[in-house]
Structure formats: C-alpha cells, structure tokens
Amino acid sequence: MTQPPANRSERPWFLALLASLAAIGPLAIDLYLPALPAIGHDLGASAAKVQWSVTAFLAGFSLGMLFYGPISDRYGRRPVLLTGLAVFFLASIGCLLARSAEELIVARFLQAAGGGAASVLSRAIVRDVYPGMEAIRKLSLMAMVTALAPLLAPLIGSQILHWSNWRGTFAALLLWGASSLVLARRFLPETMPPSHRQHVRLASAFAAYAGILRDAPALGLLLTGGMSFAAMFAYITASPHVLIEHYGFSSTAYALVFSSNATGILLANYLNSRLVHRLGAVPLIGLGAVAGVVATSMLLILFVLDLDVRFALFFLFMGVVVTGLLGANCVGLLMHRFPANAGAAAALFGASQFGFGVLASASVGVLPGANGLPMAEAMLVADLLALLGFFLYRRHGEGEPRGSSSLR
Question: Rounded CA gap, 222 and 231, in Å?
Fold first, then answer.
C-alpha cells in the first residue's frame, strides 16, 4: 500500500489512532508508577532496584526511537511500526510474568524498545500524509492526547491496584499493545511511497543522524524542543518533594496542581493547533521560548526570596505549559527540513527530549537549595538553552513551511 487516500486521512479516527500510538510511551511509563512499592515487596527487591525498571524503560525508549527512525526511511513506516508493536506486546507478557526484579528490568527495556516505534513513526506518518503547516497542526492535536496520558495513567494504575495486584497494570499494557497492533495492522496503510525509499541505503539512512547534527538550524530545533521538555522533567521529578514534603501540600492539593499544569499543556497544544496557520510555527516557538525564560526567572526569584509558595504556582504553571507551544512546532519544522529522512529526524527529536529530560531530572538532585531552588534553577537553565536554540534556528533557518505545499 502507498499513501492513503485523502478521505481516509481526513477522518477523525485516523488521527485518533496515530495519537493513541504516540501515547504508548507516556502510558507505559506512568501507568505502573503507583505499583512500584508493591513490585519491590512481591519480588523481594529494594526500592532502588525496582527504580531501575524506570531507567531501563527510558533508555530502551530512546534507543528504540533512534533505531526505528532510519529503518522506516528505508523500508517504510508500516512494517517497522508493526514489528515494534509486536515487540512491545511480547515484552509486556515478559513484564506480566516476571519473577524477579532483574527479569522485569530486561522486559521493561524490551517493552520500551518496541514502544519507541509507535512514538516516532506516528509523527513520521503525520508528516507523510499532511501538507505543510497542516502537519504541525495535526501534531499539536496528537500532543493533546500525549499530554493527557501522564495525567490519567497514574490514576488508572491506582484503580487497577484496587482490584488486582501490580501485574494487573502490565495486563492493561498488554491489552493496549494487542489492540494497537490489531488496529494498526487493519487500518494504517503504508504512507511512504516506494519512490521515496527504494533508492535509500540502510547505511545512509543511519548516516542521516550525522547530517542532522551538523546542521545549525536542526540543532536549534533539537535544543529548543528538547530543553523545553527537560524543564518539564525537572518539574515532574522535583515537584512532589518541593510541594508535599517542603511546603506541606496534601496529596490531594498536589494532585490538583499537577492536574492543572497537565491541563494547561493540553490547552496550549490546542491553541497551537488553532493559531499555527494564522501566526506561523516560528513566532509561536519564539513566544513559548521567551515565556518559559520569563516564567522560570520569576519562579527562581520567588524561591530565593522565600515568599509564599502560592505566588510561585502561577509561574510554575506558565513554565510548564509552554511546552505545548514548542514540541509539535519544533518537530514539524525539523521533519520539514529533512524530508527524505523524516523518520530519522523524528527519532532524533524524541531521543533528545528524553535524553535532555534525564539530565535535567538528575541535575535537580545535585543542585544546592532547601526549597524549590534546585527545581527552579534546573528549569531556568533548560529554558535559557531552549531560547538559545530558537535564536540559532532563526539565524540559520529557512522559515515557515507553506500550508498548501507538501512537505516532501
């Protein structure tokens, strides 16, 4: 099969299916988090060892994306996507049946390696099917679903634990993987025509990474999108300690703050999908990058002055939700810049987000400060680097893709 007919790509279910595939990663990361203590108790493992299953997933997810992107540029989206979903499904069985923490860690790595295909190729398929600025708008709508996943997944995981044990969370992921595999096999055609891949060598597909990394505008987009995501990772890592342990928020109050921020990201993605045709992707990236620096600067000042934390919540909200103005726009422009290697470009973007996110998460633990200072410092540094990336793109970039033209 080749590029889908227009009436198929215009149907709501087509984008909904792609969004559900993109949500596999966040869902698989967050769904089982409430079960971590129970896993350690049942498998006789320390909390630190069980936490390695989270680290293994992040590593496998990033490496999986880097592997599948170029492969799909050479062999097409459909067979690579189905293979990745099959790996995710089989590894989910391994997670479900794990008898030790070591088995779980290995299975989680393989599960993530398979899930990485769904994350990167759902974006690449959008770029294959939709022209110009419309692709960025569709990526924003998809990002609304991936923003919902971290909000709903821990709640769903907690409910599963009420009627099952920790293995129930992996049974849910197994069902999600199975349904995704069936639906993708039934409804997703090949979106990359043979004429665009038949002359691509596998070695040159992987070598595309070097070409992307040597390109100054591409580095700017990777830095902007990745560092904005890193600022959010710093917030996710540090906010429970800052708000619950230091400032005495109840678990309910913290959940409300977390939910409002996640809702803000969703709304920012929705606004981006509505405004990108009118204002353009580049101005919206600039707005988001500047707003992030302003918000996290104010956040740092408020923590330095040790004022009432309630004053900081607004700027924390603003510092987090700007990711909704950056992610879809940056990856859309990056794939537009490398049309022959869109899979590799999307993979490198996703891997940079998680790679920078892990660095930001680790930095929170080593920066000095008793209240929210380490979190604010890490967020501000990340947002400053994101703004630097935007300036790099503006200096060397080629501008906006046209809404009526194909990205190919």
Answer: 14
Assigned CATH class of 211-396: mainly alpha
When comparing pLDDT for 73 and 90, which is higher? 90
**Nearest to residue 42, comparing CAs of 130, 222, 170?**
170
The predicted pLDDT at position 241 comes to: 76
Angle of the 323-337 helix axis to the 216-239 helix axis, nearest 10 = 150
- H-helix segments, 76-215: 77-97, 101-129, 132-163, 167-187, 202-213
Residue 370 CA, chain-centre distance (Å), reads 30
Cβ distance 344 to 321 under 8 Å? no
* pLDDT (tens digit per residue) in 156-184: 887 888 888 889 999 999 999 999 999 99
**Can you give the residue ranges of every domain in the chain?**
6-190, 211-396
pLDDT tens figures, 262-299: 888 888 988 988 888 888 889 999 999 999 999 999 99
- Residue 44 tokens read as 């006789």
Alpha helix locations (H) across 280-341?
Answer: 281-304, 309-321, 323-337
Per-residue b or e along 309-339, where b marks 16 or more CB atoms closer than 10 Å to that residue's CB: beebbebbbbbbbbbbbbbbbbbbbbbbbbe
Q: For residues 333 and 283, what is the distance between their CA atoms, to the nearest angstrom?
A: 12
Six-digit token string for 11: 């149907």
CA distances from 257 to 236, 240, 253, 321 (A): 11, 10, 6, 12
Fold of 6-190: Growth Hormone; Chain: A; (1.20.1250)
Q: Which residues of 199-212 are buried (b: 16+ CB within 10 A; e: fewer)?
A: ebeeeebbebbeeb
How is residue 185 written in tokens?
């096999």
Count Cα neighbours of 285 within 13 Å in the Cβ-side half-sphere.
33
Query: 256 Cβ partners below 8 Å, 6+ apart?
Result: none
pLDDT one-digit tens code per residue, 223-233: 999 999 899 88
- What are the tens digits of pLDDT across the range 107-160? 999 999 999 999 889 888 888 888 777 888 888 888 877 777 766 777 788 788
Same fold, 6-190 and 211-396: yes
Integer Cα distance of 84 and 261 in angstroms? 31
Residue 2 pLDDT:
46
